[in-house]
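Lesson 9: reading folded outputs for more than one chain in a single document. The general rule is that every protein is listed as its sequence immediately followed by its structure tokens, and records are never interleaved. Here is the first one.
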Amino acid sequence: MSFKTKDITFDELFICNAKDIEAIKQNKLEKKRNVNNNYFYLELPNQEWGFSVLKEGNTLFIPLTNQTKLDDKKNLDKLMTLYKKGELKRKRLGYNFWIKSGELAVVTRDIFKKSYKSLKYKLPNTCCSVFIYTDKSYDSNNKIFKKFRKESDGLFRRYNLVSNFKNRDEKHLDEIIFEMDDLHQEEMAFIESDLLEPNICFLEVTV
């Protein structure tokens, strides 16, 4: 069973009990990976578009790049073949977490648009583990996206700091906005021209 849409953009992902969806929308869950044993959180270094989940038995597979095709078992088998050949790395992310409500939710969030998408899956009360699969091209791209994210976060902190001044300098704010726009254009140019392929990355959620 699979779900797929090209209309979703996201840069954060939660895997949690379905009852926690509203808490996520109200920004009440701490955004740190595995701060407790009730949910899983992941921040992507860049904004991705297109969101899909493939369910095989009680295992979920969640692509984290637009280039990772995982909409049916045939594509999953191809990726598992790459893993067996040593072309993909598999690594556990954090600690186990518990689904105690009988319903697991996968929630994506677009930080800047403040938009959400959630999917629910009925599961027995169980302990879940998360693994990430990546190839060499993704690992290389990821380093560059993390650099962009670090610079972007710094600019947003500067903007918020200056905008809160009582006698703020509007010219200074405009300069920061221009820097943000330049950085965004630089990132888009990287994606269009220099992104290494096949850029494979996906999560496996096991019970």
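And here is the second record, again sequence then tokens.
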Amino acid sequence: MTRSPPHIDLLDVEHKTFCSMISALRVEMTRVLTGHISQKNLDGLAFAAGYFESQANIGRAVLQPELSVELGKMADSLRIMYAEIAVDLVSRRG
């Protein structure tokens, strides 16, 4: 992801991977939460996730100057997370 606005993931420019991951997360969360929360709340989860499952919505969001600070924070957090995962994978390989 680029460090300055617009924050573009150079490996997922069209946001296909991101949106499919959000969709998979929604499906799994729905599976886990069914029977534990109301259908109204499950519908709310589907509605909220639906926004992030849209490539067009994500494409517009990354171009919004108002969101640049928050997107930058998310990008930095993801960089740290990916670095920690990489270190963990390397250490497991021995």
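What the second record shows: The mean pLDDT is 84.
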